[in-house]
Amino acid sequence: MTAPAVVIKNVTKLFGRQRALDDVSFEIPANQVFGLLGPNGAGKTTMFSIMANFLKPSSGSIEVLGVDVEHIGELQGRLTILPQDALFQGNVPVREQLEFFARLNGMTKEAATSEATRVLELVGLLEAQKKNARALSHGMTKRLGIAQAFMGKPEVIVLDEPTAGLDPVNAAAVRALIADIKRKAEATILISSHNLAEIQEMCTTVAILNNGKLVEYRSVKELTQATGVVRILFGRPLAELELAKLRGLPGVGGVQIDPQTHEYHITLAIPAGSTSDTVVSNLIAELAKGGVIPRSVKEGSSLEEKFLEATARPN
Questions:
Q1: Cα-trace Rg, the chain
Q2: Which of 24, 70, 223, 282 has a CA positioned 20 to 30 A from the CA of residue 48?
Q3: Residues 202, 33: Cα–Cα separation, whole Å
Q4: What are phi and psi of 122, to 5 degrees?
Q5: Sheet arrangement for strand 67-68
Q6: How far, in whole angstroms, is CA 46 from its chain's centroid?
Q7: Which domain-ending residue is among 224, 249, 282?
Q8: Residues 265-280: pLDDT tens digits?
């Protein structure tokens, strides 16, 4: 069995009387994309800060690649972390900063130059390489941080809100980059994001924190798998009469609209002697008669629904 990339053991962090983290334990499998989720104030940033050895835990420990982060120097080049609001020197050209970071990781001058070119191309910033960081937009600065995080061949990459502030094109490019690393199993990537549809698409396993406690830890497939629930995305919002027709079709127990993804979440009330496949086929055929064609049909709950359920439970 492959050893986990990250092991979090009974981590508690106190700020005065406030428990930012409360006896949290879980493991992050190697060579997967892992999601760390939670509402604001749940403890995600504190966890990342301890993982980076910016903060010390009040008790417990974190091991990355078998190394206690108390000895973070042993992880040089193997662990990279992109904070949510990574800062760069405002008056230093982008390329110079990346080459400097590469030299800090032990690369030769020639290797640092080559690596800076590679990651700048990776995030679409090669044309901005001579610009000072202060001249970059928020989205470009975010991409610069991602470039830094992917320099060299890190084995564990921590990304805090990697697509926040990016336009749809650049956000899709970041997701594609992460998907490519996931497909090749080249590294373990830990992502925190409030975009739950994005997490559901990219991640294999998730942990959910709430009020400093671990309230859920499962594979995305296990968490979202649910019988009797179908999510349908149409090419356009349904008109009131079309929505009323959908709600009145045989086998439809209820309909809710996800405000983030605009999917229609349909709870099935399957009649005796029928199946979910039959019910779904019939409702799609009935809607198609009126020119309403689905773009996608997915079985199971959305991650957002399960996130709201998990964070609503009393700790």
A1: 23
A2: 223
A3: 7
A4: -60, -40
A5: 18-28, 6-15, 59-64, 67-68
A6: 17
A7: 224
A8: 888 887 777 787 888 8
- What is the pTM for the complete model shown? 0.76
Residue 311 lies in a domain: no
Judge if 19 and 66 occupy the same domain.
Answer: yes
Q: What is the pLDDT of residues 23-33, one digit of tens each?
A: 999 999 999 99
Instruction: Print the domain residue range for 290.
Output: 229-299
Statement to judge: residues 202 and 285 lie in one domain: no
**Count of structural domains within the chain:** 2
Among residues of the chain, what percentage have pLDDT more than 90?
A: 37
